[in-house]
Amino acid sequence: MSQLVAEDVTSRHGSDDPVVVVGAGPVGLAAAERLLDGGAQVVVVDRAAAVGGSSRSLDLWGHRLDLGPRAVPADAPAEALTRWLDLAGAAGGVERTRAVHRAVVGGRLLDLPLRPTDLLPPGGAVRRLARHLGRDRTTGATPAPASAWDVLVARYGAAVTREVFVPASRKRFGVHPGELPAALADELAGTPRRRGGHGEVLTAREGAGAVWAELARRLTARGARVLLSTCVEGLITDGDRVSAVRLRDGYGGHVLPARAVVAAVPATGVRSWLPGTVAPTGPAATGRDTHLVHLLLEPDPRTGGIGQDAHSVTALDASLRVGRLTTTRPWRPATSRDASRTVVCAQFWSSGDDELSVLSDEDLAAAAVAELPALGVHRGVRVLDHHVHRVPGSVPAPLPGAGGTGEAGLDRLGNLVRVARADRPGPHGPAGALLTGRALAARVPVRSR
């Protein structure tokens, strides 16, 4: 698909201008499909060399590893589930497993979802419970939560939130949970509460990336163009509308006339395209980086396993630098049945200018290995190899509210449609992204000719 970037898109005459979708992740590809359904010409552009965005897959040591969201809850909305199953089925099939998620809190491994009593010191009595939770016992209507702090305090109490979730919020997002939208409270707690910690989930046998490659294949078969390794340098405007998009690829710069633009990327990217837009500063405005450390493990010879059978372990301990550990084998047990070795992925988050961001790949891998026992991995496990994958700006800017201050000024162009905070996929994983993208495309204005 990337070979299409050499085309001189400015030479086309006598046809309608296309709708340009920026971002070839699940949301952008789903938006493109919806636009094609409506009869529009569509061009999808992405600076990456492959489709899938944060849901790409990576082949290491004979394992297919997913870099981002990989599972779809079996109880996802019917439309989302049906669309995802159609793609995953065509891309190699589906595996079904019962997910087990855990968290490390105070040196203890606890099942998710967390209960308030799980977070109490051992030996607490009812009186200590009430005092530790610090609940407000006043009666009357409860106001809608304004931030993740409000949600967590209502669920776990102020003392637990200060002790457990404030450090976790600073580790993941770089800010206090009072600066996060209420919708991120479940993410801080390790797993969406409504899904629980042990729900049944579906995964693509060939990896999440194969699902989005299949969708991209269908789009190009229907006439869409997918331009990879292509950056958006800016927008050309005519009054309050976008008239063209300035692109750059390996062949140089291009100007692509556009009927409308769908921005399936974070607000930080959209701001850089608009002249005169002042971007907020600091890590809370620019987002944070993700560092994925994949480790190839050989089982402990005494036990024959690695000791950690959970799909994921969220590190809520402030003393741990790892944010989350995932294990590949539980996600696709049938695919991994004959594999003697296992791959785990330790996930770190950084602001781009802190200690973690300047560590070499070897030092970052060593930091992950040092914390494996605290995350439930047997000490007798051998680490055979490592691979570090860094994803800059992958954690969205955590600005409170559906249209926080960081998003101000981005809606002045009538035919620029973007993913606002309120549009981000909910707890249904990749399947939810399909519905988000289609809803985004439905907002593209129809222009009379």
From TrEMBL:
Taxonomy, superkingdom: Bacteria
Coiled-coil annotated spans: none
Domain named Amine oxidase: residues: 28-444
Pfam families tied to this protein: Amino_oxidase
GO MF term (any one): oxidoreductase activity
Name recorded for this polypeptide: Protoporphyrinogen oxidase
